[in-house]
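Before going further, learn to read the protein records used in this course. The integers have meaning only within a learned vocabulary of local backbone shapes. The record below shows the convention in full.
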Amino acid sequence: MANKLLSTAKNLQVIYEDNHLIVINKRPGDLVQGDKTGDLPLSDIVKQYLKEKYNKPGNVYLGVAHRLDRPTSGIVVFAKTSKALPRLNKLFAEKSAKKTYWAIVKNPPPKSHDTLIHFMKRNTKQNKSYANKKEVPDSKKAILDYEIIKKLNRYFLLQIDLKTGRHHQIRSQLSAVGSPIKGDLKYGFDRSNADGSIHLHARSLSFIHPVKKELLELFASPPHDVLWNACC
């Protein structure tokens, strides 16, 4: 495990770092924070990276401010100080950060651009959320804007602006309009991707720095594969 931690930390894709924050381009398959699987989480890899880079003895502080689904790639922000973490938590809780995602689908949505509004109900046993057209008990309103920004050979690239942050929101809402994300078996795509990923990528994030109070605009390149490369 120690050797894997060291080698993985060396391959970390750091987008931005200062005294208070470190921003990573997460690979599909990486777990942001430890769970019952016992798999090595990204948070531990980032701690190891900081420990090596700054030759720090003992434990390294790192706060998890938000998460991405395991099969999803893209921007993840961590706090390096206890001062930054509660401010980051508040920023994400209040939806003050602007998040943009890219998704690749085979079946285009009904319109070239639109706003999708559903009422999401989560099933914790299935680890799945269902998008309902009308409000149902224990549901939460979910809103996103999407636009088709590129037509590929057999697929379409969508740009998605999240207005709310519900569990599996993009995956569930796109599936509800007949456009499941490539590789997303859980939400209706017909085949999984060979590496277990789905073609959903947290492309950009902009927010006011919690300490410096300056605007941060961050971008993450999608993973290297034939489809993502065609998008770029």
